[in-house]
Amino acid sequence: EAGVVQSPRYKIIEKKQPVAFWCNPISGHNTLYWYRQNLGQGPELLIRYENEEAVDDSQLPKDRFSAERLKGVDSTLKIQPAELGDSAVYLCASSNKGGSDTEAFFGQGTRLTVV
Amino acid sequence: QKEVEQDPGPLSVPEGAIVSLNCTYSNSAFQYFMWYRQYSRKGPELLMYTYSSGNKEDGRFTAQVDKSSKYISLFIRDSQPSDSATYLCAMRGNTGGFKTIFGAGTRLFVKA
Hints:
A: 7-stranded mixed sheet, 4-stranded antiparallel sheet, B: mainly beta, 6-stranded mixed sheet, 5-stranded antiparallel sheet, globular
């Protein structure tokens, strides 16, 4: 079974530029999560989807961050414009427990560096 | 004060040692307690999860939850160099959208 696939693995951009991350969850997983992991910290939830619906986006900085999950499968997370403080690893995860991330599977992440 | 506190380490042990990793928390509503392992430049991988209090064993790994003390532990027996990684505790309640809170992770080095 293929795991959660994220791309790109690494991205370096200048501040104020836009950037987008892509995630393909495990087949059949209805729940998809985007997390941000700062250096030396645990992941922090940005947004959670149940199928196409964003059911928890309370931690998403909506002035510059946006996300979509068309057709309830793949998802894209966008930052526009990027700031220096956005440098982090962006992790996508998925689960099939109907909203429970107790058994969420993570992708390898996209490491973003904003210079 | 953070909801979940975890000593970042690093923790260095010789091969074969018993490793004890711990987290404390402040939110008494937490019901599910998880341990993830994260290798360098990889995503977290779920090792074990426990519901409410008690112990759970899986091979060389044992998870313990003491809700009265708001304290959870992960024990690794016969540690191997391949166990060298960052171990993240995580926990969530049974309601409120199942938001999981992660600890900062403890870096473990097992020396051959």
